Amino acid sequence: MPPPADIVKVAIEWPGANAQLIEMDQKRPLSSIIREVCDGWSLSGSEQFALRYADGPQLYITEQSRGEIKNGTILRLAISPVSHLFHCGIQSHVIDARLEALKELAKLSADPTFAAEFINMEGIGTLARLVESGTHFGEMLAFTLTAFLELMDHGIVSWDLISLSFIKQIASYVNQPMVDVSILQRSLAILESMVLNSHSLYHRVAQEITVGQLIGHLQVSNQEIQTYAIALINALFLKAPEDRRGSDLSLRFSFFQHVIRGNRPIKAEMAHQLYVLQVLTFNLLEERMMTKMDPNDQAQRDIIFELRRIAFDGENDPTGTEKRKAMYTKDYKMLGFTNHVNPAMDFTQTPPGMLALDNMLYLAKVHQDTYIRIVLENSSREDKHECPFGRCAIELTRMLCEILQVGELPNEGCNDYHPMFFTHDRAWEEFFCVCIQLLNKTWKEMRATAEDFNKVMQVVREQITRALAMKPASLDQLKNKLRGLSYSEILRLRQSERMSQDDFQSPPIIELRERIQPEILELIKQQRLNRLCEGSCFRKLGNRRRQEKFWFCRLSLNHKVLHYGDLEESPQGEVPFELLSDKIPVSDIKSVVTGKDCPHMKEKSALKQNKEVLELAFSVLYDPDETLNFVAPNKYEYCIWTDGLCALLGREMGSDLTRSDLDTLISMEMKLRLLDLENITIPDAPPPVPKEPSSYNFTYNYS
Length: 703
Description:
The protein is α+β, with helices and mostly antiparallel strands. It is about 50% helix and about 10% strand. It is built from 28 helices and eleven strands. The protein has helices at about 30-40, 80-90, 95-110, 110-120, 125-130, 140-155, 165-175, 180-195, 200-210, 210-215, 225-240, 240-250, 255-260, 270-280, 285-290, 300-310, 320-335, 355-365, 370-380, 390-405, 425-445, 455-470, 475-485, 485-500, 505-535, 610-615, 635-650, 655-675, and strands at about 5-15, 20-25, 50-55, 75-80, 535-540, 550-555, 560-565, 580-585, 590-595, 615-620, 625-630. Strands 2-1-4-3 form a four-stranded mixed β-sheet, with helices on one face. The protein has a four-stranded antiparallel β-sheet with strand order 5-6-7-8. Strand 1 and strand 2 (about 20-25) form a beta hairpin. Helix 3 (about 95-110) runs parallel beside helix 6 (about 140-155), helix 5 packs antiparallel against helix 6 (about 140-155) and helix 21 runs parallel beside helix 23. The chain is flat, with a radius of gyration of 34 Å. The termini are far apart. The relative contact order is 0.05. GO terms for molecular function: SH3 domain binding.
C-alpha cells in the first residue's frame, strides 16, 4: 500500500553523527519536526537550527518551500543562518568576524528562502546603514554591496524605499578616480537597477551621475567594468526625457573606439549592451518616423522647396505666379515625387513620415554633389528608365526602418549589433546615403521602369540584408560589400540557392522522397534526443546586468527523466547528473507550450514581452500542475529542445529546424541514390509494357 500523500521519506544529516531516516509529515509544523530531529541527536535550542538540502544549491527549507521536498531527498540540519548572521555576524565589533559574516551573507543572499527571512528582520536597512556610514572598505564593502544587490534582486523590497544618502554614497564610489574594481562593478550594477526599477530614483541618480562621468569607465582595460558602465548608460538613456537623449548620445560615439576597436574579443554581455544601445539609438527616430507632414505647414513645405533649390539652383525663378507654379510642378516631377503639385502629400503616410524628408535633406546638404548627380541624371532621361528619387527615398526609408526594427523594444537575449553604427555621429543618415546610391545603381543595372519599382525594392532589400549579415566594421566596408552585391551577383546567388534547394517534381522522384522521409525523420528524432541527453545551459531571466546566473537541463540516457539544477557559472562541457539536484519523470509531462502561452511570458515586463524573447520561450507542464520554464539562448537551441520534448511525448516535430534538416537530408540522400542516373532524363511516366510475344516456345542456351 503506497504511503499517504502528505508523508515523504527523507534522510537528515548532521556532521559527526549517523543520518536519521524519518517520515516527514507535511501537515506538522516545520519547527516541530526540527525539534524532533534535534532531540534524536541530543541537541538543545532547536529554534537556532534549520533544514537545508544537502545537494545542489543547498537552499534552506521553510514552510512555504517544504512542499517541494520529494521522497528520497537528503537534507542537512544546520544552524539557522539568518539570526546568526544578523545578530552575531554583520553587527559584530570584531572585524574578522564581521568580514566572514558578510562573505557568507553575500553567498546566501541568492537563496530566496534565506532572503525573505533576512529581509523580515530589517536586513536591507542594516546593510544600507553600513554603506551610508562610509566605514567599510575593500572586501568588506564589496561583500556588503553584493549581498545588498542579491537581496534586492528578489523583488521583495521596493527600490523606492532607498534613501538619498545611500544613493549619494554609491554614486561616490563610481565617481572616485581610484576605487576597487569589485566595488565599482557592484556600484554600477546597483545604480542601474535603481534607474530601471524606479522612475523617482532615476532623477536622483541622474543628479549624481552624468554620462560624461561614465564615459571615463569605458577607457579602462577591464571589459567587465566597460560592460557595467554601458549598461548604466543604457538605463539612463532609456529613462531620460526625450529632450535629453540626443545630447547624451552625441557624447558617446567618440568613446566607443575603446570598446569596439580594442584588441580584446567582445564578450556576449558586452555585445548585448552594444545591441541595446543600438536599438535605443535608432528608437530616437521613431517620433519623426510616426510624424505625418502637415501640407499646410509653411516651415515644412520650405524643406521641400530647399530640396528643389539645391537641385536646380542655376535656374532663376520666372516672374508671374502661374509660370512659377508650372515650373515648380515640373521640378517636383523631376525630383521624383508622386504628387507633382503638392509633394508634401507624399510624406503624410507613416512610417516613414517626416523621417524620409529628414534623410533627403541630409543627403542634399551634406552630400550635395551626390544628390545633384542622382536627381539630374534621372530627370534628364526620356526613355522611361528614370529612377524617381523622391518616391525611392520615401520607400527606402520605410524599408530601412523595418530592417533595423526602429521602434521595437530591445530583446533580452539578443547580441546582434552592427559595429559600423558606432563609427559616426550621424550613422543613420550616412547609412541612408549609402543605400540610396545603391538603389540608384541597381535601378540602372536592372534597366527598370516605373512598373518595376517593387521588383527593384525587393532586390535592394536583399542586397542590404546580405551586406549587413557580413557585419561590416565601417561604412566604407559596407560600401565595398554592396559593391560586390550587384544585380547580376544577386541573380547568381538566387540561382545557386535555387539549384541547391531544387526538388524534382516528377512522380518517381516524389515517390522516392516519400519512401525516404520516415527514415530521415527517425534520424532527426534520434539526433534531437541525443542533444537533450548532452544537455544545455540556460540563463535565468532578470539577472543579465549583474552576476550571471545559469541553470542546466539534460535528459537521462534512458530517456525517462529530465534532470536540472542551478549552476554558479556557465559550464564549459557536459554537466554530470550528480550536480543536477532536481528531476522530472518524462511520464509526468503533460504538454509543452511555447511563446505567449508560457506562464513566465505572461508577466508584464517590457523586455519579456518582446517578440524575439517570446519566440525563444517554452515551458514543460507536468503533474501535479507544475511548470519548468525555459528561454533558449538562441533559435537553434529552441528548435532542438522543443523538437526533442515533442519526440519524447510522441508528437510531431514541427520546428523550422526540422523542416530545414528534413529538406537537406532528403535532398542529399536522393542525390546519392540517383548518382547512377546523372545526366539521364527521368520520365514522368513509366515506359509502356511491350506487347505479348506471338509464341512462348523459345529457350535460352547457356552453353
